[in-house]
Amino acid sequence: MLHPNQFQVNEAWILFRLNDAPFRTEQDGDFNIFALMDAASCFILASDPVATSAAELSEPEAGRLLEEGYAQGQKLPETLFVPHEESASILTAAAEGQGITVSRVPEDELLVFIGEAREAFRERFGGSGMH
Predict the structure, then answer these.
(1) pLDDT band of 29, cuts 50, 70, 90
(2) Secondary structure class of 43 (helix, strand, coil)
(3) What per-residue confidence (pLDDT) applies to 127?
(4) H/E stretch holding 33
(5) Is 126 left (phi over 0), alpha (psi -120 to 50) or beta?
(6) Rounded to whole angstroms, what are the CA distances from 50 to 1, 7, 123?
(7) In order of start, what are the domains of the chain with their CATH numbers?
(8) How far is residue 114's CA from residue 109's CA, in Å, rounded to a whole number?
(9) What is the pLDDT of residues 95-130, one digit of tens each?
């Protein structure tokens, strides 16, 4: 089982969906909020809203997440954990192109890292996002 104490800061990052249900906006429709988290510190390095109509992060969105993550620590990770449940072939390709090893794992193995961030998001914005 994975745990934050197995990692050094910036050794591994985690891509995950921050929200349980689509985040609703009146003007732009429904979104999922994707985040990159440092596995050691559980610090959210970057986040980006992605329209629910999109199958996955686009190339510009994937690039922006990786750039924002890099800007936080001036370093890319050795490993990027991505839940099996997420479609992320574009981000996976972008990460691998930067020399990052991508490891697909069941989302429940990442809950020790991402659970608190999801709970905080749920408390702040509710289960189905803002209306």
Answers:
(1) confident
(2) coil
(3) 59
(4) strand 29-38
(5) left
(6) 29, 28, 21
(7) 4-125 (3.30.420.10)
(8) 10
(9) 999 999 999 999 999 999 999 999 999 998 875 444
Query: Model confidence over 75-96: pLDDT tens digits?
Result: 999 999 999 999 999 999 999 9
Task: Tell me which amino acid residue 117 is.
Answer: A
Amino acid (one-letter) located at 54: A
- Using CA atoms of 63, 68, 71, 73 in order, give the dihedral in degrees to the nearest 10: -110
- Phi and psi at residue 95, to the nearest 5°: -65, -45
C-alpha to C-alpha distances, 79 to 10, 23, 37, 116, 127, nearest whole angstrom = 9, 28, 12, 21, 30
Place of tokens 């994975």: 2
Q: Which residues of 52-75 are buried (b: 16+ CB within 10 A; e: fewer)?
A: eeeebbeeebbbebbeebbebeee
Residue 5: beta bridge partners? none
Tokens 């990027």 correspond to what residue? 80
Residue 61, pLDDT above cutoff 90: yes
- pTM exceeding 0.85: yes
